[in-house]
Amino acid sequence: MSYVKSLTRRDLLKTSVAAGSLLVIGGGFVAASNAAWALEVTHLKSSTMATLIQMARDIYPHDNIADEFYAAAVKGYDTAESKGPVEEGIAALNAAATGRGHASYLATGWERDRVDTLRSMESSPFFQQIRGGLITGLYNQKAVWPVFGYEGESFSKGGYIDRGFNDIKWV
Amino acid sequence: MSVSFDKKDGNVVVVIGTGPGGGVLASELAQKGVKVVALEAGGRHGPEDFVNDEWASFGQISWLDSRSTSGSWRVAKDFSGLPAWIVKGVGGSSQHWAGASLRFQEHEWKTQTVYGNVTGASLLDWPIDAKTMDPYYTKAEEKLRVTRTGGRKGLPGNNNYKVFEAGAKKLGYKDVHTGRMAINSKDYDDFVACQQTGFCFQGCKWGAKWSAGYNEIPVGEATGNLEVRINSQALKIEHDASGKVTGVIYADADGKQHVQKARIVCVAGNSIESPRLLLNSASSMFPDGLANSSGQVGRNYMRHMTGSVYATFDKPVKMWRGTTMAGIIQDEARHDPSRGFVGGYELETLSLGIPFMAAFLDPGAWGREFTSALDQYENMAGMWIVGEDMPQETNRVSLNYDVKDQFGLPTPNVHFDDHPNDIAMRNHAYKQGAAVYDAVGAVRTFPTPPYPSTHNLGTNRMSAKARDGVVNKWGQTHDIKNLFVSDGSQFTTGAAENPTLTIVALAIRQAERIASEMSKGNI
């Protein structure tokens, strides 16, 4: 995934600052710290999008799923309509993190501390909207299915009648 | 082939809904020479456009009209706007059903007698029994080509079944097999054998699973006696001054309203829409809705005691491969109050793809306890629990006047509270299901809460006496002799078994009755 096509690694390093351990942010984009992918951000603050991506991973953490899939799951919030409530929600998240002694949500080093912050706002409509949206936003991305071993559509391959529907030997 | 009846033709039988009840009834009547107009709220889909994709298919075929929920059942919390997962379209929910085709056990026709008084439950004996239904079950099994009946062989077991069977046998269960399924276990002239594709719930792209949509409706249409009007949502049933029904007001795809005159009206819109239609048909003569002198329309809503058990292992299972529900343990289906509840339950293999597993494994859950389970998806096995739930008068479909549909009519609200018997049975089933998997080395087990209801039953129940229910032993309403109910809402009680075979058997029997009564001039 590279939504900012012209961005080179050099450009990226020149113009960005670290956001947490995995992401970097610059003017109008969020990117992987190794520049493997970048996401252009139009309406939200870049730091808000970076926080949203980290929040998504902390809600549904899969160590074998790269950040770009979490980014893809939440990029739909970068719209004029979502801007207000999302900026407000992320501000509340940061306030909750600050209240627990952290500099910000993203600057919270341990997952368990970020999760504690999330638990404190679990019943908020903002949290529930982000969590609920991830169910399809993350898990209905065909590109993540192989991570789980899930094979998806099978009709075009003739089903599994000759492809291992009963192939396990361990029982 | 393609026939079109005049809307003013008051000699036709109007069937509302084309699922396993209405679709079979319409086709059977047409084959007996009766002129039928079937009003289908949805469109027409089939193997040619079904998709092997859970959410895409859900959007394609599900009934997604506005509904609300209330009560203490967990579905009201997890899926407040989606009490039921059923299909809108030709063939109804036989498009997405799993195919499990089980007869009721003999005692399940007379639970009031056999179970005795159960506090809070409105148990009632059916006015029909196993002997009455035996020939119709046989006809239904032939029609659906049910495996392990009529000399048909069983389906082969998939990986999910192998784990399930091994655990069941280690636990000492005896009645364990790949099910009695309306899925072809061999090639037939017109229909291919199961290709072990998975995606049974998304519509079978091979047409190997029976559906009223592509197996029954076309046979009826070929007689020239059946017209299926798609995208035609029934809004109200009309009646005359004598109280007999005269026709149905329905809206077409553009929202334009029409009246189809009728000699007989048969309601088969599933157990939420059927009572809703009767209630929405209230008039000055029937202020509480049609056929509702008993006050029972919409009441005694049942949805089966359900739940699932998933388990992860240290080796791959790949449960999604192959027939979704070809596996059953029947040992717990018996009535044995020593377990702490009346009635019984079946355990049946089940799998979901990763998109649905994320939504249904533990709705609302998040964090590593949840995601570490999904990380083991490839090593996961699954089963569904389906058992008899207690009818309760307060569990009901009623009209929600605060939320109107696109036609300005009140939408249905589904209220449900688990009965203590349901809870005791579910807990027993969770324990037994987990024990099955533990017996073959499960690493973790997951007692998964109920999904939105697929088995919606009982809201126009059958009763010997008019005061106890809505329809008589033929599915004919006690109050109005040319008004019938032809779907699972007729169920007096739910039994432990998946309901479709019984719905089909009742429809075959009702078609015989209606045709015979019409020829005698009685209706």
Keywords summarizing the entry:
heterodimer, A: about 170 residues, alpha+beta, about 45% helix, B: alpha/beta, six-stranded antiparallel β-sheet, about 25% helix, globular
List the helices and strands and how they pair.
The complex is a heterodimer of chains A (171) and B (523).
Chain A: H1 9-15, E1 17-19, E2 23-26, E3 29-32, E4 38-40, H2 46-59, H3 67-74, H4 80-99, H5 111-120, H6 125-137, H7 145-148
Antiparallel strand pairs in A: 1-2, 2-3, 3-4
Chain B: E1 13-16, H1 22-31, E2 36-39, H2 54-61, E3 68-70, H3 74-78, H4 111-115, H5 130-144, H6 159-170, E4 176-177, H7 212-222, E5 226-229, E6 233-239, E7 245-251, E8 257-261, E9 264-267, H8 270-280, E10 305-312, E11 328-329, E12 345-349, H9 354-360, H10 368-374, E13 380-387, E14 396-404, E15 410-415, H11 420-438, E16 444-448, E17 483-485, H12 500-519
Parallel strand pairs in B: 1-2, 1-9, 2-5, 3-15, 9-17
Antiparallel strand pairs in B: 4-11, 6-7, 7-8, 10-13, 10-16, 11-12, 12-13, 14-15
Helix pairs in contact in B: 1-7, 1-12, 5-12, 6-11
Strand content of chain A: 5-15%
Mean pLDDT across all amino acids of chain B: 98
Taken in chain order, the helices and strands of chain B follow as: EHEHEHHHHEHEEEEEHEEEHHEEEHEEH
How do the strands line up in the largest sheet of chain B? 4-11-12-13-10-16
Helix and strand content put the structural class of chain A at: alpha+beta
Order of helices and strands of chain A: HEEEEHHHHHH
End-to-end CA span of chain A: 41 Å
Can you tell me the overall shape of chain B? globular
